[in-house]
Design a protein that fits this description.
Blueprint lengths: L2 H22 L7 H15 L5 E9 L5 E6 L4 H13 L3 H9 L1 E4 L9 H10 L4 E9 L2 E10 L7 H48 L3 H15 L3 H20 L1
Antiparallel strand pairs: 1-2, 1-5, 3-4, 4-5
Length: 246
């Protein structure tokens, strides 16, 4: 085995180790934010010539409208690149999320796309090449892993293959973390609704069906989710209890 092959095998082993670590932790330990942070920090430690890393996240509001947010940058240089992308409204990270899946900049000095952004990157950062990889699971865009180097042409075919392997593991781990977070949120909402129902049943001497109907009607009239109405009922009752005991 040549030195290059040995080095590549070592990196693959490190990526496999990272994957086991991320997939093996409990949901309580690793929410989505910690998964992303772990991946960007590991990218700088594991992948050759990667000096900085960050993540561009797809965030959807209640209506499903997506916006892009930058997070988990390993340092101020990666953050500056993301700030510039948001300032100019376009760039490789955005392109990777919505269109191309993998977008690379070989050299910011000669890159013809995004000329104003490239000029700002040259003037304000030491970044000279970039690779952005879409994290995509089950038909849902999650975001893009963004890798930066101070060396032009840092991301050859082998480097791209390694980065894509890391991004694949990251997408699976992030999707799992999101599902765990949604499950915990659903359990918490169910508990709150049950607690609010119990309070209404006790105060107004109604059964469980009638108590839930009251919560549902309040939700409809105020255009507020049922879980949020339940949380307000519980909070108001707890406040009344404190007032009575003081």
């Amino acid at each position: 085995m040549t030195h290059t092959e040995d080095s590549g095998a070592s990196i693959h082993a490190k990526i496999a180790e990272l994957a086991r670590a991320v997939h093996g932790v409990s949901e309580a330990e690793f929410g989505p934010d910690r998964v992303i942070r772990h991946v960007t920090e590991s990218a700088v430690q594991i992948l050759p010539d990667v000096d900085h890393a960050g993540f561009t996240m797809v965030v959807r509001d209640a209506a499903g409208t997506p916006t892009l947010e930058s997070t988990a940058e390993t340092d101020l240089i990666a953050r500056q690149f993301d700030v510039l992308q948001h300032e100019y409204g376009d760039g490789p990270c955005f392109e990777a999320i919505w269109n191309e899946r993998i977008v690379g900049i070989d050299d910011v000095e000669t890159e013809p796309r995004w000329p104003e952004l490239m000029r700002a990157v040259r003037e304000r950062t030491p970044i000279r090449s970039n690779l952005s990889i879409q994290l995509y699971v089950s038909g849902r865009e999650l975001g893009a892993l963004n890798l930066f180097s101070g060396t032009p042409h840092a991301f050859d075919e082998e480097a791209r293959d390694l980065a894509e392997t890391l991004a694949t593991h990251a997408a699976i781990a992030l999707n799992t973390a999101h599902r765990g977070e949604q499950f915990r949120s659903a359990l918490a909402s169910r508990d709150l609704i049950g607690q609010a129902k119990g309070m209404i049943m006790e105060r107004f001497r109604v059964d469980a069906v009638r108590a839930f109907e009251i919560i549902r009607r309040l939700s409809q009239e105020s255009n507020t989710p049922v879980a949020e109405v339940a949380a307000r009922i519980v909070a108001a009752e707890e406040f009344d209890d404190r007032e009575r005991s003081s």
